[in-house]
Structure formats: C-alpha cells, structure tokens
Write a structure and sequence with these properties.
Layout: H1 6-19, E1 27-33, H2 38-47, E2 54-61, E3 64-70, H3 75-89, H4 101-114
Antiparallel strand pairs: 1-2, 2-3
Amino acid sequence: MVLLQLDPFLNELTSMFEKSQEKGSVWVTLKRSTLKSKLQNRKMNAAGESVEHRCLIRATSGKKTISASVGAKDYQRFQASYALILKARMTALKKRERKDRKKSTEADKKGSNSTPKPKKL
C-alpha cells in the first residue's frame, strides 16, 4: 500500500471526482489505524508504550485506488479541504425552493372559512 501526502491525495481525489462525473462512482473510506501489524501493536501494548492512532483514508474509483494517512495535528486542515471538494462535486444535489409557510397557511384558512358548515337538525 502506497501512502500519498495530503496535498497530492486531495489533488488525485479531485481528479477522480472529475473523471467519474458523467459515469461511475468514487468510494471514500476513513478508518482508525496505527499503520502497524497486530503483532507489533500487541508488543507495544505489553511494553507499556503508547500507540499513536492515525486516520487512514482510501479512495477508489474503478480500478484506481489511492490512500493517505492523517495525524491528529493535520486532521482539521484535511477535513476542511475534503469538505470543500465534496461540496464542489455534489452538483446533483440541488436545493429546492421552499414555499413560505405564511402563504400556505393563509390559503388553508381562506379555504376552510369559505366552506359552509352543516346545519343541525
């Protein structure tokens, strides 16, 4: 597994989104990882050493897979950049126009007032 630095990873992710805009999909996975084997983790825990957990990010589009690892210090900057990329690429999710609630409730009141009430016999 080849790990990219954050900026090249974000650039490649942007190009993956551009290529799959007409057809295809991009899968992004984030998970907590130490980037070490289970055996090494067990040895470090037994020795009482602290284990630094990082965020492992993988993006897959078709046969192409890229990955990066983010530490706790860089996570805020990465999250902001990642959010900007997602907002720019989600053009299919357009905001619908909302009707004013006052107008719709006034129309309902007018409609209910104009109907005659049944007479009691």
